[in-house]
Structures are given as C-alpha cells and as structure tokens.
Request: fold
Amino acid sequence: MLRVGIVPGDYPEPVAADWPDLLEIVRELVKPERDVQKREANRERWWIYCENWPGLYSALRLTDNAVVRSLTSSHFSCFTRATTEKVFDQTLVVWASEKSDLAPLLISRVHEIWTLVFGATLEDRSRYSINDCFQTFPFPPDLTSLRSIGETYEASRRKLATEQKVGLTKIYNRLHNPLDRKPDIVELRRLHAELDEAVLRAYGWDDLADMAQDTSEDGAAPRFLHRTDEPEFAYEERYHWPAWFRDKVLARLLELNRARAAEEVKAPQNDKMKPSALQLDQQGTLI
Reply:
C-alpha cells in the first residue's frame, strides 16, 4: 500500500512505501505489465496481488499443511504436501488438508485412471481439473488406512529428492525408466504398488488388490508398458497396470459414481448436501 493518495499521512500500519527498495523492484518489473491491463483496479494498485484468493488463504490459516499439484504435469503422481505459510502460484491446485491420508489417494493409480479419462491434456501432458477430476471422483468410505503407507511413500520420495537434489519430475522419470534398476528407485516402485493396493482395499475391492499383486506375465502387477503392446498413448512407456486391469478399476469407479449419484437423487432435499459435507470433512477443505 502506498501512502500518498491511498491512506492518510498519519496511517499507523506498515505500507509498501515503507520498503522503497523493494517497491522500486516491483515498479520496474510489475508496473509496466499492469499499466496495460483492462481492469482498472489492477492498473491503479499495481503493487498488490491481482488475485489474493481470500477463501484459499482463510482455509490455509486453519491448518499447517496442504496438498499441492501443478495444473499441468508430465507425471501424474506429482502431488505433494507443503506447509501453508507460502504464497502459492496460480498454476497450482491446492487442498488445505491437515490429514496425511488425502495425498496417497490422489497419488494412486486409481485416481490417475479416473483423471486421465475425465481430465484434459496440454500437448502430451495431463491437465488436472478440479471439476472434472476431483469433484466427480468417488472416494472410498474411509481414508485412514492410507495414512501409514502414504507417509512411508512420501518419506521415501522426499529422501530421494533431498539426496539427489532433484524435483519430482526427475524422480518419476527414473521410476518409469526400465533401465533404471538402482535400489532406491526399485524401492519407490515397490512402495507405489503397496500404496495402490491399500487404496483398492480401502474401497473394499480386495479381489482387485490381490490381482494387483500377481507378478506373472498375465497378472495385473505394474510393469513397463511399451508402445508395441500398450493401446493407450497416455500409458506408453510408463510403469503402470496393464490395460485390461485398468479397465476393471475404471468400471468399478464408474459403478460407484453411478450408485452414489442415484443415492443423492433419492435423498430428501434437506439431506442432499450431507454427502458433500462429509466428503469434505474426510478430504480437507478444497479451494
């Protein structure tokens, strides 16, 4: 905030003009772009964030942690937890959630299958849409069973990132590279499979979880999918479940989604918001 023309000269609180060196940087780098914007407020208050998303930051003040993902990513599983004192970029999707059981569900291949069917793409990268990928996704009845494996998986991934000084993209490049057989990435592949099995069991789909452990040639365990035998482009050259098993998982999700939609239609008018309220309580506040 500037003092001249904005607040009285005796205004007691700090304003932007109290840090002239920093304000000059904003004047040089930000103001020229703001001067040509159509919105008058953005032109006149060029030193203030265009969109400060009060709803998001109000929710973040109630928790120490959030789940974050880039809107567009070459690897689906780049959901991660972050502390909430940050200013989040507009290219991120942010969930204000203290619980550690939301991230493993979102990271899972179960959620990935749903997202790649109903989400969008940018070039050859998936683009995550809250409306299409998250709000339509049928959650399991309870997420608490995912907490332990989720924390173990994230700790392993975080250790890789710290020791190698790399980001999630490079970690998942390694995970999907069939030539990379180093123990650290082999362990992450194993943990990812364990996480997926826990998610399947959280839905009560023990039969699918058992199938996902079958490492035989005709089994459903994750394997490296090649262009010559993988029918879907999005899964080519990935370490993932085979197509026939992905179809089974998608069919279960679609049926669960249909059943829950039917329940909501039958619910009394006063109760129709209850499932959403309960779901948000499990998932954390979504902004």
